[in-house]
């Protein structure tokens, strides 16, 4: 039986309308700066990479430049590697792990692949440390042609010219304690559904594409990350976040059907990373390192098995 208190916005069993969404939005507080923490970190990369503004995110009086980092010496004969982070703004290592990969490792892939890195897809949510955008929409359920999320639509437009040439796409995420204490309860309340408590996996795991699984690719990423941080074990039912574990640290979703970022291309190799920053066994630095290690392993495997 569910004994959790009702979410403080809305009426249990009734989906939110405009009034409830406005109440939710009024409670969102800016807690950090996209300009200071992300844009400022991207600026020094202009000396070695092309930085493109692929759109502008606007909510009320707030405007955020959407920035992507590309290989400077692009070669159309080479495949494209897409790296995305910050689809959920509160998942900090997704953003900073992507930037750490560019700073520390991207040069290792020069002349081998055309890199396209979008490190912070949801800057409004980054500043609020939230999962949703300002319209209470989850961008990571909105990657489709008729996307209701500005963030998702902008990335789709960015990727479209190279979509057919993307060999590998790695989308960097986190699973946090606030998933269980805030975001899942808020989702249930927004949709007028009961909240069903679940556990939070302690460690790193991956989400493969159930429509095109690549188990050896996922295994290579898991093995690389295991040198940096621990891998999440299955629960007593053999699951991670409710999905069957198909290999150590790996579950599967139907990426495109769910409108997930990792399904935005037809890349042969696709995965979503999930680190656990609230673990007593991991530090923020380890989480960033794990994300960067995952990207390197994903690219190395894909280039070795085109």
Automatic annotation (TrEMBL):
Superkingdom to which the source organism belongs: Bacteria
GO biological process: proteolysis
SUPFAM superfamilies, per the entry: Zn-dependent exopeptidases
Gene3D superfamilies cross-referenced by the UniProt entry: Zn peptidases
Segments forming domain Peptidase M14: 30-302
UniProt cross-references to InterPro entries, sorted A to Z: Peptidase_M14
MF (Gene Ontology): metallocarboxypeptidase activity; zinc ion binding
Active site, renumbered: 274 (proton donor/acceptor)
Similarity field: Belongs to the peptidase M14 family.
Protein name from the UniProt record: Peptidase
Protein's organism: Lysobacter soli
